[in-house]
Write a structure and sequence with these properties.
This protein has about 600 residues and is of the alpha+beta class. It has three domains: about 140 residues, Creatinase/prolidase N-terminal domain (Creatine Amidinohydrolase, Chain A, domain 1); about 140 residues, Creatinase/prolidase N-terminal domain (Creatine Amidinohydrolase, Chain A, domain 1, 3-Layer(aba) Sandwich); about 300 residues, Creatinase/methionine aminopeptidase superfamily (Creatine Amidinohydrolase, Alpha-Beta Complex), CATH 3.90.230. The protein has 20 helices and 28 strands. The chain has a six-stranded mixed β-sheet with strand order 4-3-2-1-5-6, with helices on both faces. The longest helix has 28 residues. The radius of gyration is 25 Å and the shape is globular. It comes from Sphingopyxis granuli.
């Protein structure tokens, strides 16, 4: 889209702000549920600026504007957003509050939509503006929506029942657990706003957010195990109504704010990390007694039950067959030329669809050739689409949504003969991947304490990667799920991170990125499982790898592997062959057997 289009949109927003008596406005990527991924109706930042990443914010003043992104999007934002319209500001090095504090004047009124921001963010920005004698103003309606022609409507698609046979626990049992939690803390009600928490708690799934099977809704759960679900009426079928039962009262989604006003005098739990500022304001105005607590569905949702774990294992085998067949196809066709990132991604999706079980992708496939692979969160489109060329690396990060599980896998392959540098970096990433996959650790360990295992071999060469090593994954839910993670400590707050619990699913995805040249990432999903160790004096945990697809053996520098690492790779490939071969035809099985053959043990022995 041309720069002139976004210049016009910015001008129209400024005119709307002036008409409302505002001197500025903050535009985040967010929705009323503070979701990571939002529906088309809430893609205000993309419409205004052209930025297509999943995290970012813009601040608009009468004569100046800025867009704020983290290190994942430093290159992408410059490709997509006109630098004559917006300053590029990196976070966390700076912030919206810092930039506005340096650019506002006394008496200026800066607007924000209280349904798109957290309460602590709003209070912090209000404090920063007050120091400049400026004011933060909550708007009644979003000014971007007023100038956004043909803005998509929120999805009207019905939600569906997620059967207990897949969930492993009934919705009534989940509500009872939350009710017990409320009673134990002396609370009357909890406000639930996170879409995946609502989907999990009520055992429903939807199609309102691309790639994340949730429905747009709010909920109030009470200490008597009843609940109020606020959702558009057209989204509730008779089957869903019967599934929810008489203990769940169904209301129009638009009635949610008014319902908050009825909680006067009640002790209400609200999660400040998941509930927007407008909810706090409404409860305070009603006279409710607010207590800050984490959403009570977050941890039980993250700790999968045996049914969920069994389902996700099955989904990964099904998904692995498709990925392996794709790798075979790439090996045969990429060297011939004619392939590009879009056509490769389309082929992978088609292969996943052949199972008949695919509900959706779990995120937009990162199909990245050559230098595009050096952008960890690259998203291919018609303007960035690059040919897959001989002499380069191709990185594909993809996943599927199945009724029994969510997958996420990254493989990097060489198109033609890889360079010595490519092989060295790939092997260092692999060594880190193996170190994390084989880690054993005491119960209570946090992901930040394991992160160095995946980075150590890169650090030894003075290189690193700028993203986390592992994120939580849902069970036919969000591909990014908290509270578990494996990453460097954030702001020195390692003590506040969630310990890893048996039953959690995480990714194991170290990488390396050489700007302008290539990217490497090896990603499998793992389950946290108990470890029986003879003579152990602590309760120990480890990881079970559940992703199965060949790792590019031609990119492995065997001399850099220890015998133990070579053993792991061979054993992993033996598992891949065992798991995937039954779902393949004879030709595919023959290819898979070759792709999973043992590596050169002599070369590996050199590293001993």
């Amino acid at each position: 889209m041309s720069s002139a289009v976004h210049a016009d949109r910015l001008a129209r927003l400024r005119a709307e702000l002036k008409a409302r008596g505002l001197d500025g406005f903050v535009v985040p990527i967010s929705d009323e549920h503070m979701s990571e991924y939002v529906g088309a109706y809430a893609q205000r930042l993309a419409w205004l600026t052209g930025f297509g990443g999943s995290a970012g914010t813009a601040a608009v003043l009468p004569a100046k504007a800025a867009i704020f992104v983290d290190g994942r999007y430093t290159v992408q934002v410059r490709d997509q957003v006109d630098g004559t319209l917006y300053d590029y500001v990196g976070v966390p090095q700076s912030s919206v509050a810092e930039w506005l504090g340096a650019n506002v004047g006394a008496g200026q009124r800066i607007g924000y939509d209280p349904w798109l921001h957290g309460i602590d963010w709003a209070r912090g920005l209000a404090h920063a503006l007050a120091a400049k004698d400026a004011e933060l103003v909550a708007v009644d309606s979003n000014p971007v929506d007023a100038v956004w022609d043909e803005r998509p409507a929120p999805s009207a698609a019905p939600v569906a029942v997620h059967d207990t046979a897949l969930a492993g626990q009934s919705a009534a049992d989940k509500r009872a657990i939350i009710a017990d939690w409320l009673k134990a803390k002396g609370l009357d009600t909890t406000v639930m706003t996170a879409l995946d928490s609502i989907a999990w708690t009520f055992n429903i799934r939807g199609t309102d957010v691309t790639h994340t099977p949730v429905g747009l809704a709010f909920a109030l759960l009470h200490a008597d195990a009843t609940a109020d679900l606020f959702i558009a009426p057209e989204k509730i079928t008779e089957a869903v109504r019967a599934h929810l039962g008489n203990s769940v009262r169904i209301h129009d989604r638009d009635a949610f704010e008014a319902a908050l006003a009825e909680l006067a005098g009640k002790k209400v739990a609200v999660d400040p990390d998941r509930a927007v500022a407008a909810i706090f304001t409404a409860l305070e105005a009603a006279g409710a007694r607010i207590e800050r607590h984490r959403d009570p569905a977050v941890l039980p949702k993250a700790i999968k039950n045996d049914t969920e774990l069994g389902g996700t294992r099955a989904a990964h085998v099904r998904d692995g067959v498709a990925v392996a067949r794709f790798l075979k196809w790439m090996e045969a066709h990429a060297p011939q030329g004619g392939l590009d990132e879009l056509s490769a991604a389309a082929k992978l999706r088609a292969l996943r669809e052949e199972s008949g079980a695919l509900k959706d992708l779990s995120f937009d496939t990162i199909s990245a050739a050559g230098p595009n692979g050096a952008l960890p969160h690259y998203k291919v489109d018609e303007t960035t689409n690059r040919a897959v060329e001989t002499g380069t690396l191709y990185l594909v990060d993809s996943g599927g949504q199945y009724a029994d599980g969510t997958t996420d896998i990254t493989r990097t392959i060489a198109i033609g003969r890889p360079t010595a540098e490519m092989r060295r970096r790939f092997t260092q990433v692999l060594k880190g991947h193996i170190a994390l996959a084989t880690a054993r650790f005491p119960k209570g360990t946090r992901g930040s304490q394991l992160d160095i295992l995946a980075r150590q071999y890169l650090w030894a060469d003075g290189v690193d990667y700028a993203h986390g090593t592992g994120h939580g994954v849902g069970a036919y839910l969000a591909v990014h799920e908290g509270p578990q993670r494996i990453a460097k400590p954030s702001g020195g707050q390692a003590g506040t991170e969630e310990p890893l619990h048996a039953g959690m699913i995480l990714s194991n995805e170290p990488g390396y990125y050489k700007a302008g040249h290539f990217g490497i990432r090896i990603e499998n999903l793992v389950i946290v499982v108990p470890q029986a160790i003879a003579g152990a004096e602590e309760e120990m945990l480890g990881f079970e790898t559940i992703t199965f697809a060949p790792i590019a053996r031609d990119l492995v520098e065997g001399a850099l592997l220890s015998p133990a690492e070579a053993d792991w790779l061979d054993a992993y490939h033996a598992q891949v062959l065992e798991k995937l071969a039954p779902g393949m035809d004879e030709a595919d099985r023959a290819w898979l057997a070759a792709a999973c053959a043992p590596i050169d043990r002599g070369a590996a022995a050199l590293a001993a």
